[in-house]
Fold this sequence. Notes:
Helix content is 39%, strand content 19%. It is built from 14 helices and 17 strands. The strands form 7 sheets. The protein has a 5-stranded antiparallel β-sheet with strand order 4-3-17-16-15, sandwiched between helices. Strands 1-2 form a two-stranded antiparallel ribbon.
Amino acid sequence: MQKYAEESIREHLTDLQKRFDAEQRGRKDWPFYYLNSKQINDLMVQAMKRTGRYKQLKAAGVSEDSIMMEFKKPIKTSRFTWAGEEEVEMSPWDSIRWHKKVAQAGLMSMVPGTGEIKAWVGGIDWQHFQYDHIKQGKRQVGSTFKPFVYATAIMKLGLTPCSTISNASFNKGTYHVPGRGGMLTLKDALAHSQNPVALRLAEMTSTQSVIQTARDLGVTEEISTSLPMALGSSDITIYEMVGAYSTFANYGNYNKPEMIWRIEDANGRVIKEVNVEPKEVMNPLYAYTMIELMKGVAQYGTASGELGRKGISKDIEIAGKTGTTQNNSDGWFMGIVPKLATGAWVGWEDRATHFYGTGEGQGARMAL
C-alpha cells in the first residue's frame, strides 16, 4: 500500500504542477499572490537564512551584504522536477524561488479497527524537501473540521441527517458569512459544505463543546474558541486528522495511529511491543450517523465531481470530507472506505503560493 500511495502522489502532483506552472507563466511575482515586492524579499531572505549555505557563510564571519552577493551568483546545481532531477546553472537565490513553486503533499492511511498505519508519505522528495507533512507539519484544515462540529450537534442536540437548519447568511456582530437561504438537511449541508450551517451548529452547541469533541477524537493542537473555528481555521497535522476520522469508522472507538508494532533484536528477542487499547469516545450510533452524513460528500457533494472524473464508481461506498483554506492555500481530502481511513493534503511551502481561483484551488481538485 505504501508503494501505491507514493505512486498516486507522483501521478497526481505531476499533473497538478503542470496546471500550476501554466497559471504562473509570465507573472513577475511568481509563485506568490497578494504579496508586494518587500514582502516577497522578506520571505525569500527568511528562506535563505534557513539554508546550510547561509549558515556556513555566517559562521565563517561573512557579512550579510557579501552573503547576498554569493547567493545571487549563478552556480551549477540540481533542482527538483517530476521528470527527474535536473542539472542547471542558476543562483542559490533563484533555486530557492524555483523550489517554492513546487507543490507539496502528505498522505497517511490507517486501519481504523487496529490503529495500524498502512501508508505514510510525508513529502514528495526527501533529498530536496526534508520535511514531514504528516506529523511535523501543521496546516489549516478548512472544512475537514466540520464533521467535528456536526458530531457535536448530533450528540448534544439529538439531530439526525434529516434534521433541517437554516442556510441563511450568518451574522454575528461584524462577522458576516453569506448564505444561499432556505432550509437544508444536515446531510445536504455537509455534502455541499455550507458555511452558515456549520457556524450555526457551533453557536448552538458552543465552541467549547466542539473543541471537546475534537479532543476526544485525538486532536491535541490548539483550537481557537472563536466561531470561525467551525470553518477550520486551526492548524492540525494529517496524523491527528486521520486518527480522528478513523474513530467515526471504528464505531466511536479511538485508536492511536501506530507505525511500529514490534521490535526484535538479532536473536528474535522482543525489545518492544505496542499494545493498542481502543478508547470509546463516542456512542456507536453517533459514529455511524457521521459516516452516513459524510457519504453524501462523495455521492453528490463537493467530492462527487472529482471522483467521477477519476472514474470512481458511485457504487463504491466512500465517506469523506473536502477542505479548502483561505486563498486556496491548502487542499484536503479525508476519505473513509471499509477498513481504511486516509487523509491527503496538498499545498505549497508558503501559504502565499497557491492557485488563483477555486476552480483549480478547491480541496477536491487539489487533494483527491
